[in-house]
Design brief:
The protein is an alpha/beta fold and 462 residues long. The chain has 19 helices and 15 strands. It has helices spanning 21-35, 47-54, 58-71, 91-95, 113-127, 131-134, 143-153, 170-182, 197-205, 222-232, 253-266, 287-290, 321-331, 337-349, 351-373, 397-406, 414-417, 437-451, 455-459, and strands spanning 74-77, 81-84, 101-103, 165-168, 188-192, 209-213, 215-216, 219-220, 236-239, 269-273, 295-300, 312-315, 386-390, 409-411, 426-430. In the C-terminal section; belongs to the class-I pyridoxal-phosphate-dependent aminotransferase family.
Protein backbone atom coordinates (compact mmCIF):
# COMPACT_ATOMS: atom_id res chain seq x y z
CA UNK A 1 0.00 0.00 0.00
CA UNK A 2 1.22 3.51 -0.72
CA UNK A 3 2.28 5.78 2.16
CA UNK A 4 1.75 9.54 2.27
CA UNK A 5 5.08 11.20 3.15
CA UNK A 6 3.22 13.91 5.04
CA UNK A 7 1.68 11.32 7.39
CA UNK A 8 3.63 11.42 10.69
CA UNK A 9 1.58 9.05 12.86
CA UNK A 10 2.01 5.37 13.63
CA UNK A 11 1.84 2.90 10.75
CA UNK A 12 1.73 -0.88 11.13
CA UNK A 13 4.68 -2.60 9.51
CA UNK A 14 2.28 -5.02 7.85
CA UNK A 15 -1.26 -6.27 8.14
CA UNK A 16 -2.19 -9.94 7.97
CA UNK A 17 -3.89 -10.74 4.70
CA UNK A 18 -6.36 -13.20 6.23
CA UNK A 19 -9.17 -12.59 8.68
CA UNK A 20 -11.11 -9.40 9.54
CA UNK A 21 -9.19 -6.24 8.72
CA UNK A 22 -9.93 -4.60 12.06
CA UNK A 23 -8.39 -7.56 13.91
CA UNK A 24 -5.33 -7.47 11.67
CA UNK A 25 -4.89 -3.80 12.62
CA UNK A 26 -5.30 -4.49 16.35
CA UNK A 27 -2.85 -7.38 16.25
CA UNK A 28 -0.30 -5.25 14.42
CA UNK A 29 -0.73 -2.50 17.00
CA UNK A 30 -0.30 -4.97 19.84
CA UNK A 31 2.83 -6.42 18.24
CA UNK A 32 4.41 -2.99 17.80
CA UNK A 33 3.77 -2.20 21.47
CA UNK A 34 5.34 -5.51 22.48
CA UNK A 35 8.36 -4.84 20.24
CA UNK A 36 8.90 -1.35 21.65
CA UNK A 37 8.00 0.59 18.51
CA UNK A 38 5.25 2.25 20.52
CA UNK A 39 5.57 3.38 24.12
CA UNK A 40 3.20 4.22 26.93
CA UNK A 41 1.55 7.59 26.20
CA UNK A 42 2.23 7.65 22.44
CA UNK A 43 -0.62 9.24 20.56
CA UNK A 44 -2.16 7.24 17.74
CA UNK A 45 -3.42 8.73 14.47
CA UNK A 46 -6.99 9.96 14.24
CA UNK A 47 -9.43 7.39 12.91
CA UNK A 48 -9.96 9.19 9.60
CA UNK A 49 -6.24 9.82 9.03
CA UNK A 50 -5.22 6.22 9.63
CA UNK A 51 -8.11 4.95 7.51
CA UNK A 52 -7.00 7.12 4.59
CA UNK A 53 -3.34 6.09 5.03
CA UNK A 54 -4.13 2.37 5.06
CA UNK A 55 -6.95 2.45 2.50
CA UNK A 56 -9.42 1.19 5.08
CA UNK A 57 -12.86 2.42 6.02
CA UNK A 58 -13.20 4.73 9.00
CA UNK A 59 -15.56 2.16 10.53
CA UNK A 60 -12.85 -0.53 10.36
CA UNK A 61 -10.33 1.68 12.16
CA UNK A 62 -12.92 2.71 14.76
CA UNK A 63 -13.74 -0.93 15.44
CA UNK A 64 -10.03 -1.72 15.72
CA UNK A 65 -9.52 1.07 18.25
CA UNK A 66 -12.53 -0.15 20.26
CA UNK A 67 -11.09 -3.66 20.32
CA UNK A 68 -7.67 -2.28 21.31
CA UNK A 69 -9.26 -0.37 24.18
CA UNK A 70 -11.12 -3.49 25.27
CA UNK A 71 -7.81 -5.38 25.33
CA UNK A 72 -6.38 -2.67 27.51
CA UNK A 73 -3.62 -1.52 25.16
CA UNK A 74 -4.97 1.95 24.35
CA UNK A 75 -7.20 4.51 26.02
CA UNK A 76 -9.41 7.01 24.21
CA UNK A 77 -10.12 10.48 25.54
CA UNK A 78 -12.88 12.57 23.97
CA UNK A 79 -11.43 15.68 22.34
CA UNK A 80 -7.85 14.56 22.92
CA UNK A 81 -7.34 11.38 20.93
CA UNK A 82 -6.29 7.78 21.45
CA UNK A 83 -3.12 6.92 23.37
CA UNK A 84 -1.04 3.83 23.97
CA UNK A 85 -1.57 2.62 27.52
CA UNK A 86 0.89 0.49 29.43
CA UNK A 87 -1.23 -2.56 29.86
CA UNK A 88 -1.58 -4.56 33.00
CA UNK A 89 -1.98 -7.60 30.78
CA UNK A 90 -2.46 -8.03 27.06
CA UNK A 91 -5.02 -10.30 25.54
CA UNK A 92 -2.25 -12.42 24.07
CA UNK A 93 -0.66 -12.73 27.48
CA UNK A 94 -3.99 -13.52 29.11
CA UNK A 95 -4.86 -16.13 26.55
CA UNK A 96 -1.48 -17.86 26.64
CA UNK A 97 -1.55 -20.67 24.10
CA UNK A 98 -5.04 -19.70 23.00
CA UNK A 99 -6.20 -20.27 26.59
CA UNK A 100 -7.90 -17.75 28.81
CA UNK A 101 -6.91 -16.90 32.36
CA UNK A 102 -9.39 -18.89 34.42
CA UNK A 103 -10.51 -17.06 37.55
CA UNK A 104 -13.77 -19.03 37.49
CA UNK A 105 -12.23 -22.30 38.69
CA UNK A 106 -11.35 -22.46 42.37
CA UNK A 107 -7.90 -24.04 42.62
CA UNK A 108 -5.20 -23.62 45.27
CA UNK A 109 -2.11 -21.61 44.43
CA UNK A 110 0.95 -23.61 43.47
CA UNK A 111 3.14 -24.40 46.46
CA UNK A 112 5.20 -27.23 47.89
CA UNK A 113 2.47 -29.85 47.58
CA UNK A 114 3.85 -31.48 44.42
CA UNK A 115 7.33 -31.97 45.88
CA UNK A 116 5.91 -33.18 49.20
CA UNK A 117 3.59 -35.69 47.55
CA UNK A 118 6.26 -36.88 45.10
CA UNK A 119 8.63 -37.57 47.97
CA UNK A 120 5.90 -39.25 49.97
CA UNK A 121 4.78 -41.58 47.17
CA UNK A 122 8.41 -42.43 46.52
CA UNK A 123 8.80 -43.26 50.20
CA UNK A 124 5.80 -45.59 50.08
CA UNK A 125 7.20 -47.35 47.02
CA UNK A 126 10.65 -47.78 48.58
CA UNK A 127 9.74 -48.71 52.12
CA UNK A 128 6.51 -50.61 51.97
CA UNK A 129 5.30 -53.74 50.27
CA UNK A 130 2.50 -52.45 48.06
CA UNK A 131 0.57 -55.72 48.18
CA UNK A 132 -1.44 -54.73 51.31
CA UNK A 133 -2.60 -51.54 49.58
CA UNK A 134 -3.54 -53.30 46.35
CA UNK A 135 -6.00 -55.82 47.74
CA UNK A 136 -9.72 -55.37 48.48
CA UNK A 137 -10.60 -53.27 51.52
CA UNK A 138 -13.76 -52.24 53.41
CA UNK A 139 -15.99 -49.94 51.40
CA UNK A 140 -15.48 -47.08 53.84
CA UNK A 141 -11.70 -47.34 53.63
CA UNK A 142 -8.89 -49.07 55.53
CA UNK A 143 -9.88 -49.08 59.18
CA UNK A 144 -6.54 -47.83 60.50
CA UNK A 145 -6.66 -44.95 58.02
CA UNK A 146 -10.17 -44.05 59.15
CA UNK A 147 -9.08 -44.03 62.77
CA UNK A 148 -6.17 -41.65 62.13
CA UNK A 149 -8.14 -39.36 59.82
CA UNK A 150 -11.11 -39.24 62.21
CA UNK A 151 -8.79 -38.28 65.07
CA UNK A 152 -7.18 -35.53 62.98
CA UNK A 153 -10.60 -34.07 62.11
CA UNK A 154 -11.78 -34.11 65.73
CA UNK A 155 -11.33 -31.22 68.14
CA UNK A 156 -12.96 -29.72 71.22
CA UNK A 157 -16.15 -28.91 69.32
CA UNK A 158 -16.59 -32.10 67.30
CA UNK A 159 -15.58 -35.70 67.91
CA UNK A 160 -15.68 -37.90 64.82
CA UNK A 161 -15.91 -41.65 65.38
CA UNK A 162 -14.14 -43.84 62.80
CA UNK A 163 -17.24 -46.02 62.36
CA UNK A 164 -19.21 -42.98 61.16
CA UNK A 165 -16.47 -41.64 58.87
CA UNK A 166 -16.29 -42.91 55.28
CA UNK A 167 -13.55 -42.14 52.77
CA UNK A 168 -14.84 -40.92 49.39
CA UNK A 169 -13.46 -39.89 46.00
CA UNK A 170 -13.42 -36.20 46.91
CA UNK A 171 -16.14 -34.02 48.39
CA UNK A 172 -18.26 -34.30 45.24
CA UNK A 173 -18.59 -38.05 45.76
CA UNK A 174 -19.35 -37.49 49.45
CA UNK A 175 -22.12 -34.99 48.62
CA UNK A 176 -23.62 -37.40 46.11
CA UNK A 177 -23.69 -40.19 48.68
CA UNK A 178 -25.21 -37.90 51.31
CA UNK A 179 -27.98 -36.85 48.92
CA UNK A 180 -28.75 -40.45 48.05
CA UNK A 181 -29.12 -41.19 51.76
CA UNK A 182 -31.74 -38.51 52.41
CA UNK A 183 -33.50 -37.74 49.11
CA UNK A 184 -35.09 -39.43 46.14
CA UNK A 185 -35.84 -38.14 42.62
CA UNK A 186 -38.46 -35.41 42.67
CA UNK A 187 -37.67 -34.24 46.22
CA UNK A 188 -36.95 -30.62 47.05
CA UNK A 189 -33.64 -29.51 48.61
CA UNK A 190 -33.15 -26.21 50.43
CA UNK A 191 -30.01 -24.34 49.36
CA UNK A 192 -28.51 -20.86 49.48
CA UNK A 193 -29.88 -18.59 46.74
CA UNK A 194 -26.35 -18.72 45.32
CA UNK A 195 -24.85 -22.12 45.94
CA UNK A 196 -21.96 -24.42 45.01
CA UNK A 197 -22.10 -25.25 41.31
CA UNK A 198 -21.04 -28.87 41.90
CA UNK A 199 -24.03 -29.41 44.15
CA UNK A 200 -26.30 -28.01 41.45
CA UNK A 201 -24.85 -30.59 39.06
CA UNK A 202 -25.52 -33.47 41.46
CA UNK A 203 -29.08 -32.28 42.06
CA UNK A 204 -29.77 -32.01 38.33
CA UNK A 205 -28.37 -35.48 37.66
CA UNK A 206 -30.47 -36.89 40.52
CA UNK A 207 -33.67 -35.11 39.38
CA UNK A 208 -33.95 -33.06 42.56
CA UNK A 209 -35.60 -29.65 42.85
CA UNK A 210 -33.52 -26.90 44.44
CA UNK A 211 -35.37 -24.36 46.59
CA UNK A 212 -33.42 -21.09 46.93
CA UNK A 213 -33.25 -19.53 50.39
CA UNK A 214 -32.50 -15.83 50.68
CA UNK A 215 -29.14 -14.86 52.16
CA UNK A 216 -27.73 -12.11 54.34
CA UNK A 217 -24.12 -11.25 55.17
CA UNK A 218 -23.67 -14.57 57.00
CA UNK A 219 -25.29 -16.85 54.47
CA UNK A 220 -28.68 -18.52 54.83
CA UNK A 221 -31.27 -16.24 56.43
CA UNK A 222 -33.05 -18.14 59.25
CA UNK A 223 -36.49 -16.60 58.70
CA UNK A 224 -36.26 -17.27 54.98
CA UNK A 225 -35.23 -20.86 55.73
CA UNK A 226 -38.28 -21.38 57.90
CA UNK A 227 -40.58 -19.86 55.28
CA UNK A 228 -39.11 -21.74 52.30
CA UNK A 229 -39.16 -25.04 54.16
CA UNK A 230 -42.84 -24.71 55.00
CA UNK A 231 -43.78 -23.49 51.52
CA UNK A 232 -41.92 -26.25 49.68
CA UNK A 233 -42.23 -29.13 52.10
CA UNK A 234 -38.48 -29.73 51.69
CA UNK A 235 -36.84 -31.83 54.38
CA UNK A 236 -33.18 -31.54 53.35
CA UNK A 237 -30.86 -28.53 53.70
CA UNK A 238 -27.52 -28.22 51.94
CA UNK A 239 -25.31 -25.49 53.36
CA UNK A 240 -21.72 -24.32 53.58
CA UNK A 241 -21.45 -22.37 56.86
CA UNK A 242 -17.73 -21.64 56.51
CA UNK A 243 -16.51 -19.61 53.51
CA UNK A 244 -19.66 -20.32 51.56
CA UNK A 245 -19.11 -20.77 47.84
CA UNK A 246 -19.51 -18.53 45.90
CA UNK A 247 -19.97 -15.65 48.38
CA UNK A 248 -17.14 -16.47 50.87
CA UNK A 249 -19.49 -15.66 53.78
CA UNK A 250 -19.06 -17.36 57.15
CA UNK A 251 -21.73 -17.88 59.81
CA UNK A 252 -20.95 -16.88 63.38
CA UNK A 253 -21.66 -19.28 66.23
CA UNK A 254 -25.02 -17.69 67.03
CA UNK A 255 -26.21 -18.22 63.46
CA UNK A 256 -24.97 -21.82 63.43
CA UNK A 257 -26.88 -22.57 66.60
CA UNK A 258 -30.01 -21.01 65.14
CA UNK A 259 -29.73 -23.09 61.95
CA UNK A 260 -29.24 -26.23 64.07
CA UNK A 261 -32.33 -25.36 66.14
CA UNK A 262 -34.37 -24.78 62.98
CA UNK A 263 -33.21 -28.13 61.60
CA UNK A 264 -34.70 -29.77 64.70
CA UNK A 265 -37.87 -27.68 64.55
CA UNK A 266 -38.44 -28.26 60.84
CA UNK A 267 -37.20 -31.88 60.89
CA UNK A 268 -34.47 -31.20 58.33
CA UNK A 269 -31.58 -33.44 57.36
CA UNK A 270 -28.53 -31.18 57.00
CA UNK A 271 -25.72 -31.78 54.51
CA UNK A 272 -22.89 -29.62 55.83
CA UNK A 273 -20.12 -28.89 53.33
CA UNK A 274 -17.06 -27.92 55.39
CA UNK A 275 -14.32 -28.20 52.78
CA UNK A 276 -12.88 -24.72 53.44
CA UNK A 277 -12.61 -24.67 57.23
CA UNK A 278 -8.88 -25.48 56.95
CA UNK A 279 -8.31 -21.80 56.11
CA UNK A 280 -9.13 -20.99 59.74
CA UNK A 281 -6.47 -21.36 62.41
CA UNK A 282 -9.23 -22.76 64.62
CA UNK A 283 -12.13 -24.41 62.84
CA UNK A 284 -15.51 -22.74 63.41
CA UNK A 285 -17.92 -24.97 65.31
CA UNK A 286 -19.59 -27.23 62.71
CA UNK A 287 -23.37 -27.63 62.63
CA UNK A 288 -22.56 -31.36 62.86
CA UNK A 289 -21.55 -30.77 66.48
CA UNK A 290 -24.80 -28.89 67.23
CA UNK A 291 -27.20 -31.30 65.48
CA UNK A 292 -25.23 -34.58 65.23
CA UNK A 293 -28.20 -36.89 64.75
CA UNK A 294 -29.33 -35.16 61.54
CA UNK A 295 -26.13 -33.75 59.97
CA UNK A 296 -24.02 -35.30 57.19
CA UNK A 297 -20.58 -33.73 57.48
CA UNK A 298 -18.32 -33.42 54.40
CA UNK A 299 -14.62 -32.49 54.20
CA UNK A 300 -11.99 -32.82 51.49
CA UNK A 301 -8.22 -33.08 51.04
CA UNK A 302 -8.55 -32.18 47.36
CA UNK A 303 -9.25 -28.55 48.23
CA UNK A 304 -5.85 -27.84 49.79
CA UNK A 305 -3.53 -30.55 48.46
CA UNK A 306 -4.41 -30.60 44.75
CA UNK A 307 -7.61 -31.01 42.67
CA UNK A 308 -6.35 -34.36 41.35
CA UNK A 309 -5.89 -35.72 44.88
CA UNK A 310 -9.41 -37.12 45.08
CA UNK A 311 -9.95 -37.90 48.75
CA UNK A 312 -12.87 -36.63 50.81
CA UNK A 313 -14.70 -37.72 53.93
CA UNK A 314 -18.35 -38.17 54.80
CA UNK A 315 -19.36 -38.48 58.45
CA UNK A 316 -22.92 -39.72 58.93
CA UNK A 317 -25.31 -40.15 61.88
CA UNK A 318 -25.30 -43.61 63.50
CA UNK A 319 -28.59 -44.58 61.86
CA UNK A 320 -27.07 -44.28 58.36
CA UNK A 321 -23.86 -46.31 58.75
CA UNK A 322 -25.04 -49.50 57.05
CA UNK A 323 -26.76 -47.70 54.18
CA UNK A 324 -23.67 -45.53 53.56
CA UNK A 325 -21.52 -48.63 53.38
CA UNK A 326 -23.91 -50.07 50.78
CA UNK A 327 -23.87 -46.92 48.65
CA UNK A 328 -20.07 -46.80 48.68
CA UNK A 329 -20.03 -50.43 47.61
CA UNK A 330 -22.37 -49.58 44.73
CA UNK A 331 -20.67 -46.35 43.60
CA UNK A 332 -16.92 -46.88 44.08
CA UNK A 333 -16.32 -50.10 46.05
CA UNK A 334 -13.66 -48.19 48.01
CA UNK A 335 -11.26 -45.26 47.62
CA UNK A 336 -7.76 -45.91 46.23
CA UNK A 337 -5.80 -46.83 49.39
CA UNK A 338 -2.66 -45.07 48.16
CA UNK A 339 -4.39 -41.72 48.70
CA UNK A 340 -5.49 -42.41 52.25
CA UNK A 341 -2.04 -43.87 52.98
CA UNK A 342 -0.54 -40.58 51.77
CA UNK A 343 -2.82 -38.52 54.01
CA UNK A 344 -2.09 -40.67 57.03
CA UNK A 345 1.65 -40.24 56.49
CA UNK A 346 1.20 -36.49 56.10
CA UNK A 347 -0.73 -36.38 59.37
CA UNK A 348 1.76 -38.49 61.29
CA UNK A 349 4.82 -36.64 59.99
CA UNK A 350 3.39 -33.18 60.68
CA UNK A 351 3.71 -32.21 57.01
CA UNK A 352 -0.05 -31.84 56.68
CA UNK A 353 0.04 -28.98 59.20
CA UNK A 354 2.94 -27.42 57.28
CA UNK A 355 0.94 -27.54 54.04
CA UNK A 356 -2.09 -26.05 55.78
CA UNK A 357 -0.01 -23.15 57.07
CA UNK A 358 1.36 -22.59 53.57
CA UNK A 359 -2.17 -22.51 52.12
CA UNK A 360 -3.30 -19.96 54.71
CA UNK A 361 -0.27 -17.78 53.99
CA UNK A 362 -0.84 -17.97 50.22
CA UNK A 363 -4.54 -17.15 50.57
CA UNK A 364 -3.78 -14.16 52.79
CA UNK A 365 -1.12 -12.83 50.39
CA UNK A 366 -3.45 -13.07 47.43
CA UNK A 367 -6.36 -11.58 49.35
CA UNK A 368 -4.23 -8.58 50.28
CA UNK A 369 -3.42 -8.06 46.59
CA UNK A 370 -7.14 -8.17 45.87
CA UNK A 371 -7.91 -5.62 48.59
CA UNK A 372 -5.20 -3.29 47.31
CA UNK A 373 -7.02 -3.14 43.99
CA UNK A 374 -10.59 -3.39 45.33
CA UNK A 375 -10.38 -1.71 48.76
CA UNK A 376 -14.15 -1.45 49.16
CA UNK A 377 -14.78 -5.19 48.83
CA UNK A 378 -16.11 -7.09 51.89
CA UNK A 379 -13.39 -7.83 54.45
CA UNK A 380 -12.64 -11.44 55.43
CA UNK A 381 -10.93 -12.41 58.66
CA UNK A 382 -9.73 -15.68 57.15
CA UNK A 383 -9.64 -15.52 53.35
CA UNK A 384 -9.76 -18.41 50.90
CA UNK A 385 -8.62 -18.61 47.28
CA UNK A 386 -11.80 -16.90 46.09
CA UNK A 387 -13.58 -13.64 46.82
CA UNK A 388 -17.00 -12.13 46.21
CA UNK A 389 -16.70 -8.87 44.31
CA UNK A 390 -19.73 -6.53 44.53
CA UNK A 391 -20.38 -4.72 41.26
CA UNK A 392 -21.33 -1.08 40.65
CA UNK A 393 -25.05 -0.59 40.19
CA UNK A 394 -24.73 -0.05 36.45
CA UNK A 395 -23.14 -3.47 35.94
CA UNK A 396 -25.00 -6.78 35.96
CA UNK A 397 -23.03 -9.92 36.78
CA UNK A 398 -23.65 -11.24 33.27
CA UNK A 399 -22.38 -8.03 31.68
CA UNK A 400 -19.23 -8.11 33.76
CA UNK A 401 -18.55 -11.79 33.01
CA UNK A 402 -18.92 -11.12 29.28
CA UNK A 403 -16.70 -8.05 29.41
CA UNK A 404 -14.02 -9.93 31.36
CA UNK A 405 -14.13 -12.79 28.89
CA UNK A 406 -13.59 -10.29 26.12
CA UNK A 407 -10.31 -9.38 27.82
CA UNK A 408 -9.24 -13.01 28.11
CA UNK A 409 -10.31 -13.50 31.75
CA UNK A 410 -12.95 -15.94 32.95
CA UNK A 411 -14.86 -15.16 36.15
CA UNK A 412 -17.62 -17.28 37.64
CA UNK A 413 -20.81 -16.47 35.68
CA UNK A 414 -24.07 -16.10 37.64
CA UNK A 415 -25.58 -19.17 35.97
CA UNK A 416 -22.98 -21.37 37.69
CA UNK A 417 -24.21 -20.65 41.21
CA UNK A 418 -27.61 -18.93 40.99
CA UNK A 419 -30.71 -20.92 41.88
CA UNK A 420 -33.35 -19.07 39.91
CA UNK A 421 -33.12 -15.86 37.89
CA UNK A 422 -31.85 -13.45 40.56
CA UNK A 423 -28.85 -11.32 39.60
CA UNK A 424 -26.35 -11.44 42.49
CA UNK A 425 -24.96 -7.95 41.90
CA UNK A 426 -21.53 -9.50 42.41
CA UNK A 427 -19.23 -12.14 40.95
CA UNK A 428 -16.92 -14.75 42.40
CA UNK A 429 -13.28 -14.30 41.46
CA UNK A 430 -10.85 -17.13 42.16
CA UNK A 431 -7.33 -16.01 43.08
CA UNK A 432 -5.40 -19.29 43.00
CA UNK A 433 -4.76 -19.81 39.28
CA UNK A 434 -2.31 -16.94 38.49
CA UNK A 435 1.26 -18.20 38.84
CA UNK A 436 2.42 -15.43 41.21
CA UNK A 437 1.36 -12.21 42.90
CA UNK A 438 2.57 -10.07 40.02
CA UNK A 439 0.43 -11.88 37.48
CA UNK A 440 -2.52 -11.76 39.87
CA UNK A 441 -2.04 -8.01 40.28
CA UNK A 442 -1.99 -7.48 36.53
CA UNK A 443 -5.14 -9.50 35.97
CA UNK A 444 -7.07 -7.82 38.78
CA UNK A 445 -6.08 -4.42 37.43
CA UNK A 446 -7.70 -5.38 34.13
CA UNK A 447 -10.91 -6.24 35.99
CA UNK A 448 -10.75 -2.92 37.82
CA UNK A 449 -10.35 -1.11 34.49
CA UNK A 450 -13.42 -2.90 33.15
CA UNK A 451 -15.52 -1.70 36.09
CA UNK A 452 -14.30 1.84 35.47
CA UNK A 453 -15.91 1.64 32.01
CA UNK A 454 -19.56 1.74 31.09
CA UNK A 455 -21.17 -1.65 30.36
CA UNK A 456 -22.60 -0.58 27.01
CA UNK A 457 -19.28 0.64 25.66
CA UNK A 458 -17.42 -2.47 26.73
CA UNK A 459 -20.03 -4.90 25.49
CA UNK A 460 -20.47 -3.18 22.14
CA UNK A 461 -17.51 -4.92 20.48
CA UNK A 462 -18.04 -8.60 19.74
Amino acid sequence: MSMDASFLGWRPRQLASEGPRYLALVNALEQDIADGRLSDGDRLPAHRDLARELSLSVGTVSKAYQEAEQRGIVSGHVGQGTFVRRRSISRAEAMGRNEQINLALNVPAMGDETQVLSALFGEVLRERDLAPLMRYHPHGGIWKHREIIAASLSDNSLTIEPARLFLCNGAQHALDIALRLVAKPGDSILVDAFTYSGFKAIAAASHLNLVPVEMDDQGIDPEALKRRSRESGARVLYCMPTLQSPTARTMNLTRRRLIAELAEELDLAVIEDDVYSFFFNERPVPIASLAPSRTFYVTSYSKFLAPGFRLGTLTVPDAYIRQTDLLLHASAWFVAPMLSEAVVRLIESGKLDELLRERRRQALERYRVFLDIFPNAPKLQFPAFYVWLPLPQEWSADQFAIAARGRGILVTPPIASAVGELDPGAVRICLGAPKDLKELTNILQVLRDILASQPASVASVA
